[in-house]
Amino acid sequence: MVEWTKLEIEPDPAWRRFVYLYHNRTTKTKFMLETFIQRVSLEPGRTQTRRRDVTRCRKVTLQDEGTYRCFIHGLNHRETVHLVVGEQKHKPIIAAPGDDVILPCRLDSEKDLQDFTVEWSKLEMESDPADTDGHKDVVYLYRSRTTKTKFMNPSFIPRVFLNPDGLKQGDVTLKIRNVTLQDEGTYSCFIPGLNHRETVHLVVDPNGVTAPTMETSPDPGGEQTNIWISRSRPALWISLGVFLSSIFSAVWIFQKRRQKFQKPLKKLDSVPGV
């Protein structure tokens, strides 16, 4: 059995929940979402090889954007893919292991969100129905003006942070410290009270060297800007050293030339009548 689901949508009134469902060598449209029935198909011949099954979706719309999951029951094999239609609001965040990263999520207005629920989740992780004390997919949960660590994935609890000043002005950007290869994936920011949702994809490159990431959030008093900067990599320190050395060299040369031209002027000043 091969099933494709879209993680951002719930089953329709007829309890159809699949983007695509293949079972007993046939496509089961009875259980598929109507909007996809006429537009999706399994790539011909792929099921007879060891190559990945490929599902084709025709005439995509803006509403199709989101994260899709493929699940093969007999092999317990699961994969996810993020579909972007048109211009992506947030570009993928690229980091190296050990970096601190910023996952952006902001309202268009500066609405105070302190009394709203804010949930960050990782779409590749599923909630565990048997786990009554928490939710595996919840990276960060803010509710009733506090962080609800009881419902968060333990691996993220000591590493995630929401800027309280940004929260007052419609900014629920999330900071993750010391990212690992396992953190790579698609993250969803959801504010249920406003039905506001954004997604951002994090790429963790083991060989990558990333520039410092800077995010600013306005200070309520208007006199200060809070800046989050990611952990710098060794190569960046080397580049910074070379850059500063170049500046100092340029200043030194400028001073020398300035002194050289000032000496003839002093001699002219000492000549009578000049």
Automatic annotation (TrEMBL):
<dbReference type="GO" id="GO:0001817">
    <property type="term" value="P:regulation of cytokine production"/>
</dbReference>
<keyword id="KW-0812">Transmembrane</keyword>
<dbReference type="InterPro" id="IPR007110">
    <property type="entry name" value="Ig-like_dom"/>
</dbReference>
<dbReference type="InterPro" id="IPR003599">
    <property type="entry name" value="Ig_sub"/>
</dbReference>
<dbReference type="GO" id="GO:0050852">
    <property type="term" value="P:T cell receptor signaling pathway"/>
</dbReference>
<dbReference type="GO" id="GO:0009897">
    <property type="term" value="C:external side of plasma membrane"/>
</dbReference>
<dbReference type="InterPro" id="IPR013106">
    <property type="entry name" value="Ig_V-set"/>
</dbReference>
<dbReference type="GO" id="GO:0005102">
    <property type="term" value="F:signaling receptor binding"/>
</dbReference>
<dbReference type="InterPro" id="IPR050504">
    <property type="entry name" value="IgSF_BTN/MOG"/>
</dbReference>
<dbReference type="InterPro" id="IPR013783">
    <property type="entry name" value="Ig-like_fold"/>
</dbReference>
<keyword id="KW-1133">Transmembrane helix</keyword>
<feature type="domain" description="Ig-like">
    <location>
        <begin position="79"/>
        <end position="201"/>
    </location>
</feature>
<feature type="transmembrane region" description="Helical">
    <location>
        <begin position="235"/>
        <end position="254"/>
    </location>
</feature>
<keyword id="KW-0472">Membrane</keyword>
<dbReference type="Pfam" id="PF07686">
    <property type="entry name" value="V-set"/>
</dbReference>
<dbReference type="InterPro" id="IPR036179">
    <property type="entry name" value="Ig-like_dom_sf"/>
</dbReference>
<protein>
    <recommendedName>
        <fullName>Ig-like domain-containing protein</fullName>
    </recommendedName>
</protein>
<keyword id="KW-0393">Immunoglobulin domain</keyword>
